[in-house]
Automatic annotation (TrEMBL):
It comes from Oryzias melastigma (Marine medaka). It comes from the Eukaryota. Belongs to the ERI2 family. Keywords: Exonuclease, Hydrolase, Magnesium, Metal-binding, Nuclease, Zinc, Zinc-finger. This is ERI1 exoribonuclease 2. InterPro entries: 3-5_Exoribonuclease, ERI-1_3'hExo-like, Ribonucl_H, RNaseH-like_sf, RNaseH_sf. GO terms for molecular function: 3'-5'-RNA exonuclease activity; nucleic acid binding; zinc ion binding. Its cofactor is Mg(2+). Residues 35-235 form the Exonuclease domain.
């Protein structure tokens, strides 16, 4: 496979961010992590309250270079819900995701290994590792590049993916057991509670780019917010470590 074909088979689109000239932005420094992978899932949802479990229907991730503020790579796929395969009208209205898109997607049990392979390819290409416990809150050596995950709140990795994998008995990559909650980081850094992702962007003079509740657009805008916060001097640190987290890994294991 060519490089482009290989990336397409992983369900991702890879591109370099080119919407901001290098002259118009400061280079970010003094960060623990050389790269941040921003995730923002969209899931099944209903207007009325019920006891239905939510399932991921859009799985996006973007790789943020913390030195430049650029998005260097993207992963994106729609995911087929298995427990409640028919989307509600409310879900389509909110997310913009259609029944045709999820039916053309892949089940989560196929999505996760593809995502894992994307992580492996990034580690080889970019030369970073995921941190052990000693590296989650202290500066890394200049010779070692570290990467971790960022979400807006703990819901994506701490609730949505966690419980769907548990219900379906799916293996979740161990590296997804710790992350940065950008919402709580924003609240601590600026000493104010944000009114959602859009409100946080507006507070910092940024406009939301794209469609709200599109997972990929939400992930890109969360990355933009993180870059702005780092330029304001905020050092990104892991805020959540799941109990099942093990401290002896530095690379992604197959599976």
């Amino acid at each position: 496979l060519t490089s482009d074909s290989h990336h397409r088979t992983l369900g991702l689109v890879k591109q370099r961010s080119k919407n901001v000239s290098s002259a118009s932005k400061r280079v970010i420094s003094n960060q623990i992590f050389s790269y941040l992978i921003v995730i923002d899932f969209e899931s099944t949802c209903w207007r009325e309250k019920n006891n239905y479990s939510q399932e991921i229907i859009e799985f996006p991730a973007v790789l943020l270079n913390t030195s430049t503020g650029d998005i260097d790579s993207e992963f994106h796929t729609f995911v087929q819900p298995q427990e409640h395969p028919i989307l509600s009208e409310f879900c389509t209205e909110l997310t913009g995701i259609t029944q045709v898109q999820v039916e053309a997607g892949i089940p989560l049990q196929i999505c996760l290994p593809r995502f894992n392979r994307w992580l492996q390819s990034l580690q080889l290409e970019m030369g970073f590792t995921f941190p052990n416990k000693q590296q989650t809150s202290s500066a890394s050596s200049s010779a070692q590049k570290l990467c971790t995950f960022v979400t807006w709140s703990d819901w994506d990795l701490g609730v949505c993916l966690q419980y769907e994998c548990k219900r379906k008995q799916l293996h979740k990559p161990d590296v997804l057991n710790n992350w940065i909650d950008l919402r709580s980081t924003y609240r601590m850094w600026y000493n104010r509670k944000p009114k959602g992702l859009n409100g946080a962007l507006q507070d910092l003079g940024l406009l939301f780019d794209g469609r709200e509740h599109s997972g990929l657009d939400d992930a890109k805008n969360t990355a933009r917010l993180a870059a702005k916060m780092m330029r304001d001097g905020c050092v990104m640190k892991i805020t959540r470590i799941n109990k099942s987290y093990v401290c002896n890994y530095g690379s992604v294991n197959p599976g």
